Amino acid sequence: MTETLLSVQNLNAWFGMHQALKNIQIEFSPQTVTALIGPSGCGKSTFVRCLNRLHEEVPGAYATGKVILQGKNIYESSVDPVLIRRKVGMVFQKPNPFPSLSVFDNVVAGLKLAGIRRKSILMEVAERSLKQAALWEEVKNKLQQPGTSLSGGQQQRLCIARALAVEPPILLMDEPTSALDPISTAKIEELLAELKKTMTVIMVTHNMQQAARISDKTAFFLLGELVEFGQTSTLFTVPKEKKTEQYITGKFG
Amino acid sequence: MTSLRRQIGDFTRLRYRRRKALSGWMTFCLTVSACAAAGGLLGVFGYVVWKAVPHFSVSFFTGLPQPVGEPGGGMLNALLGSLFMVALGTGIGVPWGMAAGVYLSEYGRGRLAVWVRFAADMLSSVPSIVTGLFIYVLIVRPMHRFSGFAGALALSVILIPIVARNTEELLKLVPQHIREAGLALGIPRWRVILSIVLRGSRGGLTTGIILGVARISGETAPLLFTALNNRLLSLKWDQPMASLPVQIYTYAISPFEDWNVQAWVGAFVLVLFVFLLNTVTRWVMK
Ligand SMILES: Nc1ncnc2c1ncn2[C@@H]1O[C@H](COP(=O)(O)OP(=O)(O)O)[C@@H](O)[C@H]1O
Ligand SMILES: [Mg+2]
Predict the structure, then answer these.
(1) What CATH number does the domain located at B59-285 have?
(2) What is the Å distance from ligand 2's center to A223 Cα?
(3) I need a surface site. Which of A53, A175, B237, B251 has the fewest CB within 10 A?
């Protein structure tokens, strides 16, 4: 057993009266890619949003239980969610570059708005992050154009670059390719293999082939519960649970 | 079967003709209404121009009011007074109104927000003369004098709800996922609001502010009880101060021909100012 970077214990999440996650237990090791799969509405998005405390931003939403990041429970009352979110980055399903900010300002937004103003540092970080996100070649001559002027696939890679710029040890991705064309999707998948060398990626996907291609471990969610969690190769070939087998063979969902 | 189909065909043809006639009639009504609205504006503007332009001169901008019977003179005191009070009123009203709008859109949940929103709506429908009376009781009476400051305050009270509601509406148009993207980067909420949400809406915010400023530039009633008027050139904040609308009002109801003429010129300058404010904003925002 390798060390754990992030450990989730008895996590429950609610939207008002509606319980979206039930008693989730799961652990993530450093430098792995974990895929979260399951039918729509089973709580995958809710789960990743609990890991950076974004869940509680929805009016009436709250969570109980423990999420231990580097030895500290992020749900302790003394913890500032802002600091957690610098360690746990996120890429959303829909590309969401900041409107009215240039490509450059989008990438360095996390640093600039945290008070880092040195042009040389910002430039260096922007170039590194855009290269990591495989976008540098396409935008290096239009850094001052609005981020929203890029294509959908480019915008999503811009959002990835923006998340990478603050160098979080963990990156959450909520169906990052579901709104993209196959070429953009392939680019982002390639990128994941690279990212894995330095960080831990937790990625929601609707696409089973994608999960099989890119992930080390896979977690299958159903109706707010974690049904099965294990090595991707094992889970897709010899699932322990009947429900997992039914889902991955397309019997439901 | 075929007869049924024919019947349906006849029916739809009939319906089509009726729909087309109705659509034509409606378009006609809308065009007439639009022309009437635009015509009203053109009529007012044209009449003011016609009355004012023959008497328009540089001395209007450089001279001070002359005693009755003496020709010439101008409204420099009123122009500067208006500028002073509108600027100060904007300086007070815009930050205040924007803060209230941000509160309503970003933080306001529950009871307090409902009350603040209700108050803003009420405030924006209070007749402006009542606002003048309010400031009169609150500021003028305790200070025992009319003042430019009281005038500016009355204007800001009119501006605050306009700016607050405009800010709220615009910020609500910014999708939630943009805020979440900011928060997810570890940016504090106030920073997200200031540097991402507000910044993204600055076009609309500026337009709203300019329209509000244009509105208070022409307000007369709230200044009657607060800044009063001043025949001399004075920009002392705690002294009575002239303003273009009050000066126009005073001159327009006077029995003197010269003054009536000056009032028309004043009206022309006021309309021109508001017009320029609108067009320049539109142009800059492009
Ligand atoms: N903003 C919300 N308010 C209320 N209920 C929500 C909200 N978002 C999601 N839910 C509910 O929570 C459950 C889990 O949703 P979600 O985490 O989005 O599922 P998934 O990402 O797996 O499709 C669903 O039953 C959904 O209806
Ligand atoms: Mg989802």
Answers:
(1) 1.10.3720.10
(2) 13
(3) B237
